[in-house]
Structures are given as C-alpha cells and as structure tokens.
C-alpha cells in the first residue's frame, strides 16, 4: 500500500503481523519494528523473507525510502539524508506509530544516524546494521584489497571516487560477491530488488563524499545496537567501532560477528537473529 506522508509524497509500505495479540484476558501490544533498506537507490526486498521470523516479537513495517522502489518518484532536491530521516517521523505520524524500534541497514543506517541527531526522543530503540558514518575511502579500499586483491581495490576506487553508471556497473559486477563471506542463502533475492541508479549516483557523488555523522550520535536518548560483520569491506569494522564509541555510554551496545560480511543475517543468520531478538525483547 502507499501512505501519504505530506507535501504530495507517498511511501510504499508493507506491514507484517498484528500489532495487538490476544494474551489471556487482555490484548497485548507488540512493539513496531521499522526496517530501512540499503542503497541508496534500492528497495526493501532484501529484508524478505528473512525478517519474517521476528514477526512473533514485533509488528514489522517495511517501506521504500522516498523516491525509491515502489514509493512515488520525487525530485532530486528531496534526495537528502535530512528528508529521508524526517520521513521516519512523517511515516509514524501517518500510521499512528509511537516509540518505534528503527533498524537501518547500510545506507538505511546513514538515515537512522541522521534520525538520531534530528529526532533523538522519537524511537524506543535503534539498530545500526552494517553501516558507516563517513566515506572513509582509504579504509574501504584497504578492505576490498584484503578481500579481493588489487583488482577489487581498483574497481572500488573508480566507483567511489568517480561515480558513474560505467564505474558502478564495473564495480557491482566485479566486487559484489565480496560483500559477503558465504554464498547467498537466497540467490534470487538480488533479482527481486528494484534499483534506481539515479538516486545512487546522486547521493554517492554528492552528500556521501563529505558525510560526517558521528557528532549527531551524542544526542541519542534510547538504546542503540551497532551490528557489524568483521569482514565487511564496504562498511568496515573500524567504522562501526567509531560509531559505537560516539554514542552515549549508557545507551550503546555492540555486536561483532567474526567471519561475516555486509548484513550479518546473510552470513550468520542464527547468531544475527539471536542478537536481534534479544535486543527487541530486552
């Protein structure tokens, strides 16, 4: 379904599981988990069906960021972290969601970090999964070289330094398999993802180049779980450790996954979903 969030914008939203469930003589309200996808330029499809296993704990809300996937197209002037971060609040207002648990994966983690800075009292909990706080080009290049040798480093440097359709296509064909350490459990998943390269290139060539999200993290006012695969080349371990250290000590939690790449639930789903379940229910 599409939800109006104001100023003519509509987001595609999918909801899994009831929010109220029978519990003896009462109806018990489950927390709402909002899943924000990566990219930019991709859609929410990568969360399905894996995240369905959390539907017993939480009502799950998937959506496509403004301008992405099945959400309405929007002008490039709205393709900004501030707008995408504020959309979380707009979406919650439209759906009547209070105190959500917000999960941001990769680029969705950029959005979640800006959301923490702009709306620190809005969420009940935040999960920052496989994400970074800056471009960190040299760190990325070194990680890709460790995973795939000099050719992987060269492809990564060409795309992240000179983003274009040509450099992205070469990069994606040449290094996408290095993002994870194990074969995909669902090899057809990538074919289900809707991709908008215009948004991807707009962000990588613009806001991504000077990205700096650490300072805003000190405003966090709820528990924040940082999840990182220790062998993630695109959002390296060091980035996650710096994010963790930037959060207020009383709110921060860290989950490291050895031998795991980008999106811990892809390479070690048993461990990753155990951590998620504990954090959601805790």
UniProtKB/TrEMBL annotation:
<dbReference type="GO" id="GO:0016020">
    <property type="term" value="C:membrane"/>
</dbReference>
<dbReference type="Pfam" id="PF00561">
    <property type="entry name" value="Abhydrolase_1"/>
</dbReference>
<keyword id="KW-0031">Aminopeptidase</keyword>
<keyword id="KW-0378">Hydrolase</keyword>
<dbReference type="InterPro" id="IPR029058">
    <property type="entry name" value="AB_hydrolase_fold"/>
</dbReference>
<keyword id="KW-0645">Protease</keyword>
<dbReference type="GO" id="GO:0004177">
    <property type="term" value="F:aminopeptidase activity"/>
</dbReference>
<protein>
    <submittedName>
        <fullName>Prolyl aminopeptidase</fullName>
    </submittedName>
</protein>
<feature type="domain" description="AB hydrolase-1">
    <location>
        <begin position="31"/>
        <end position="263"/>
    </location>
</feature>
<dbReference type="InterPro" id="IPR000073">
    <property type="entry name" value="AB_hydrolase_1"/>
</dbReference>
<dbReference type="InterPro" id="IPR050266">
    <property type="entry name" value="AB_hydrolase_sf"/>
</dbReference>
<dbReference type="InterPro" id="IPR002410">
    <property type="entry name" value="Peptidase_S33"/>
</dbReference>
<comment type="similarity">
    <text>Belongs to the peptidase S33 family.</text>
</comment>
<dbReference type="GO" id="GO:0006508">
    <property type="term" value="P:proteolysis"/>
</dbReference>
């Amino acid at each position: 379904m599409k939800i109006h969030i104001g100023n003519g914008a509509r987001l595609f939203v999918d909801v899994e599981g009831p929010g109220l469930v029978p519990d003896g003589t009462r109806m018990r309200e489950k927390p709402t988990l909002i899943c924000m996808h990566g990219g930019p330029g991709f859609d929410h499809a990568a969360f399905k069906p894996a995240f369905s296993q959390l539907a017993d704990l939480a009502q799950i809300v998937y959506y496509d960021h403004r301008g992405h996937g099945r959400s309405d197209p929007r002008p490039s002037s709205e393709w900004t972290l501030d707008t995408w971060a504020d959309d979380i609040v707009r979406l919650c207002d439209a759906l009547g969601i209070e105190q959500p648990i917000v999960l941001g994966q990769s680029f969705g983690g950029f959005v979640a970090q800006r959301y923490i800075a702009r709306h620190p009292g809005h969420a009940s909990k935040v999960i920052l999964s496989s994400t970074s706080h800056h471009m960190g080009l040299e760190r990325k290049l070194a990680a890709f070289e460790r995973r795939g040798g000099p050719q992987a480093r060269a492809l990564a440097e060409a795309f992240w330094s000179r983003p274009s359709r040509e450099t992205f296509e070469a990069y994606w064909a040449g290094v996408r398999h290095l993002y994870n350490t194990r074969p995909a459990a669902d090899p057809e998943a990538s074919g289900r993802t809707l991709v908008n390269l215009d948004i991807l290139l707009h962000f990588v060539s613009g806001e991504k180049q000077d990205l700096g999200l650490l300072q805003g993290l000190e405003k966090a006012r709820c528990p924040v779980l940082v999840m990182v695969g220790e062998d993630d080349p695109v959002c390296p371990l060091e980035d996650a450790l710096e994010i963790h250290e930037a959060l207020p000590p009383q709110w921060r939690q860290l989950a490291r996954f050895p031998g795991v790449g980008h999106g811990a639930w892809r390479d070690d789903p048993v461990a990753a979903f155990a951590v998620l379940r504990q954090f959601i229910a805790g």
